[in-house]
Amino acid sequence: MRDVAAWGLAAVTMTAASAQSWVVRDAHSNPPALVTYDSHRSRGVMLHNVFLGNGSSTAVLVSEWDGIRWTPRPATGPGPTYVSGNGALVHSFTFDPIRRQSILLCGFNGAPEAWAWDGTSWTALPAMPFPFLRHGAAFDLATASLLVFADEGKLTWRFNGTTWSQLTFTGLDVGLQAGWFKTMAYDRVRGRTVMIGGNGTDVTYEWNGTAWTGGAPVGPLGIDPGQVAAIYDPQRGKVILPNLNGTSWEWNGSNWLPFATPAAPLGQSFFSRLFFYDEQRQHLAMYVRSTNSTWTQDPAAWVRRQRTVLSYATLFSADHPRGDVLAVEPEPSPFAAPLSTTLRRTASGWQELGNLGLPGREGAAQSDRDLLGVIYRFGGNTGAPNFTETNELRAFNGTAWSLVAAPNAPTPRAYSALAVDPIRQRLVSFGGGSQGGGGTLLNDTHEFDGTQWVQRSLTNAPSPRTFAAMCGSATLGRVFLFGGASASVIFPSLTDFWSYDGTNWTQLPQPPLGAPILGASLADFPAAGSIVLAVLTTGTGQPDTWSWNGTAWSALADAPVGHQGRALVAEPGLGSVYAPGSGALLTTNPSIAIPFGSGCASSLGAPSLRPFGRPWLGNASFAFDLTTALPGLTAGLVAFGSQPAVIPLPGGCTAWFAPEATQLVLANNGFGSVSLPVPPQPSLLGAQLLAQGVVLDAAVAQGFALSAAIGIVVGD
């Protein structure tokens, strides 16, 4: 038996020691499609797509909100593969408080699906009887079932967790009124499900358990109410429509009445906003897709809590001495010169610094920070109204951007490659194109030494191109360039690989790609003494992420793909590689949490201890969730230790380590959480901890029940 415990911790240690693993840390994939609130675990739950492998297949990523940040939740086993970006048309997502599951209904044109999410895994449910492409759903507490109204056939259905039943009713023809974008919520005070119709019909109905009644107009909202989520507000005891224009509306059973709310933080379309009411923290929460930000409402204003970066054109820089990543996100305008927003990555998301004097440029090139403390941005197209290439060089000193007087600058261009030579401390520029980046392609090499530009006369160089991927590597002592777009191809489909040592370009072996590509990114990987290449491939089954150690290529695990495609940047301080589009790190020190051993059951089943998030350095949201399996229980314990052991206990139970500390967990309806924030202290890297949940239960002979154990290793 001691070998079992030793094996459990060994699995943790071996996984932690495995080289070059991807660890998802932030929810930075495609914009979310659906959101609901898990009142059992006090978490917002968000669904969005992430592309896998070569980008031709998808999976549904689950992220959960704990009041601080969205945390990706790795799912075990099968689950839904896709949710529409316009989820209101073909999906619904709502929480079942009886069975403690978030229910996803997928109304595809093909086979309809139904899934339940419990915080750890998906469970397939009996599918909807028909592919309800346009439907509304809410959990009806009066009947302990999910109520669904489908536009197809103008039918009402009930799902009790195992069986679908079609309901009949008389009276108003709801289907003619409630069109697309209908929204539904359950009024807990009045015991009715409220449905607000779409397509500008402004009609409200209630389900009384037998029939739809009502038909009252919504009122002078000035919007299609079906495009705004109906939310039950337990503080007001009403179903509300939050409009964010300074006025929201509440339903009193016969009319919609306005009430004052904080004005909108910024002007977004109604399609751009996803709401849920955070019952534990007693405020309304909102995710804004157009700005990739999360807001909460206090009595006076909306407060932004977290910001993510999700623009295809965003450029990223490793800001090494400051220990973070800098992003510049363009704000294009078809009618005026574009602007740019500068952001800095923090533990709770991206901090928006503002414009900071940086004009927007399409196709600008951006470097990492050099040893003099400067991040450079070169060239790009001015956009409307002139659409002119520039050869401007701008520098960021940590506070503001400024225009650099740089004699002998390269000719104006867009979509060139830019990198810092970390050995020679020179800014290196290669190629690009004029006339929108697709006219005259260039293959000239220029260096900026902090005072002036110098064009290098070289005997060998890559062919003219745009969109090349380029990075510098202090470990390998070179600047590297991969691929790009040739004159006849608008996609970056070239696959040749080069190094530059300050004297000449040298062509190197390229990775054994088995299919054409549509883009690529390079980043330095100091912790592994290599650089990393990620490509967006057009073939199936071939590796898309590769490591070059100065001699040979090695295939790595496929990089998670997000809205940013294959963008990569070196992660300062950690020596890792960061994929901003998916919020993942490629690291040699992954943060992990692995269950091992077994638990022993209470009178209603075994308790479950699950990690929330990963124990990475600086993660203030890391926690353990304890599900007791005893609905009326109000408390439990989590025991902690450092050395594995096998300690037999009464009732066939086993403690998998000698407890060194315990933490009380206050439970609500059988669920509780204990916070274990990880300080940002490098000395903690590799630290190990064991945990096991304890529940008291007088109904079993030994008087208690245990969860399985969890071993964690603090990492990146």
Description of the structure:
The chain has 716 residues and is mainly beta. The chain folds into three domains: 19-307, Kelch-type beta propeller (Neuraminidase), CATH 2.120.10; 315-586, Kelch-type beta propeller (Neuraminidase, 6 Propeller); 592-713, Immunoglobulin-like (Sandwich), CATH 2.60.40. It is built from three helices and 58 strands. The strands form 14 sheets. Strands 49-58-57-52-55-56-51-50 form an eight-stranded antiparallel β-sheet, covered by helices on one side. It has a four-stranded antiparallel β-sheet with strand order 1-48-47-46, with no helix packed on it. A four-stranded antiparallel β-sheet has the order 2-3-4-5, with no helix packed on it. Strand 24 (293-297) and strand 25 form a beta hairpin. The chain is globular, with a radius of gyration of 28 Å. Mean pLDDT is 84; it is low at 1-8 and 174-178.
Short recap of the structure:
This protein is mainly beta. Helix content is 3%, strand content 47%.
Number of strands: 58
Structural class: mainly beta
Q: Overall mean pLDDT score? A: 84
Beta-strand portion reads over 45%
Defining key terms:
716 residues; mainly beta; 3 helices; globular; disordered N terminus; Immunoglobulin-like; four-stranded antiparallel sheet; Neuraminidase
